[in-house]
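Human: Not sure, check this?
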Amino acid sequence: MQQTDFLVIGSGIAGLTYALKMAQYYPDKNILVLTKAAADETNTKYAQGGVAVVNDMENDSFEKHIEDTLIAGDGLCNEKVVEIVVKEGPDRVRELIEWGARFDKEKDGDYKLGKEGGHSEHRIIHHKDVTGWEMERALLEAVSRQKNMEILKHYFVIDIITQHHLGYLVTKATPDIECYGVYVLNSQTNQVEKILAKITVLATGGNGQAYRTTTNPSIATGDGVAMVYRAKGRIENMEFIQFHPTALYEPGMKGQAFLITEAVRGDGGILRNKDGEAFMTRYDERKDLAPRDIVARAIDSEMKRTGTEHVWLDCRHFEKEKFTEHFPNIYEKCLSIGIDIARNMIPVAPAAHYSCGGIKTDEWGRSSIRNLYACGECSSTGLHGANRLASNSLLEAMVFAHRCYTDAVNRKDAIAFADRIPDWNAQGTNEPKEMILITQSLKELQQVMSDYVGIVRNDIRLQRAMRRLDLLWEETEQLYESTSLSIQLLELRNLITVGYLIVKGAMFRKESRGLHYNTDYKGKSELVQNIVL
């Protein structure tokens, strides 16, 4: 057993920002960060486009950024939270720069500002086309200079410890559910350990692996959302899964797809169908720079109409030197598969990208479970509403990591460590005999979610998805109860829970709004509400 005042689950921008601030504020306290893989293997690392932040007050304003965010969110944003994130964002970006992050600059020293879908102005600061990688690098270097921070790698959190583990009945109606720490699987020793904490922060990232094709890495299995739901915490708006319109299409692609950042369209890239038509003019007056939900549905419609598996992104009119300077990673990837952007168009198709819902929090990142905070993609703060505005995610992660830190600093001394927490009980379990039971169930889950709960949905598809998920859940719970734990089994269990929450939220929402498009309810309901599960 370990004890720590501050426990952080996840080592992306949200988790590391919070942990670094705590380490600097409390030099005499040990800050413990858990990550289930390598420290830099996070969704943050794969963010290409940049950070949306008001930096040019002559041509841009907070009001414009707020309005763009509200329009993209399609009526479900929390306006107070939007204002908080937009107005506090510049300070958080400056902190990151002080920690060593490098963003691209013009020759006169001003930051280069890109433009992406849904933005009315150029406000995206970036580091070439690997912005997330650069931010993660800067944070990890800053963390390495802290003597009171420890990152435990290859530690998989199984469950949040609450009163339930002390023998009490805990339900959704239980007042003041408390988090005492976590049970974790040390994948290097294959032993389950318990870690007690006064304050726990979940920064576990997204859940793109619930789908057959995603821009997310293999670790994005919705762990934080699933464990909070099991602990009877509140989950919100899970039906709003953002599909990035332009993942690089490769024949037979599945798993993690290579992202073609929206900034390419911001610089003038044009989407074309198999006939060469710039089809976005038929779908939205903003054309290729419409919000992602509109562009993804337009591409889906064109693919179905023409019977193709992808559309084309035309960058042939770009100056090659300019393209390779801004998008070197994309240029090299395309070249590696025989695509010269000066002569060839890039085949692209939508892929699961970002979860706009998640663990419901207040404006300080507090979840419905006491002493448990959430920030980053696993949370639902109210910023994104029904559709995330491009490049707002990294900004939100930094702002809410700071707000979690600010609130937790004021509460730590009022919290005591829990006692009588039992050890993990693995009695009666056996070594799994067939790994195919897990791998095949994962394939089934991803197939069901992709075919029935994708960009376009209807009631029959959702009902079929729920019936199949129910069976997968029963089979997986039997495995969980009877066999010893493995990361593959735990991730499958979490993904099935996330899939259930996405489907359940979609079934409750009797309308089409933002990222949720149901052909049985093409209009919007007059009752604008969040779906809380």
The radius of gyration is 22 Å.
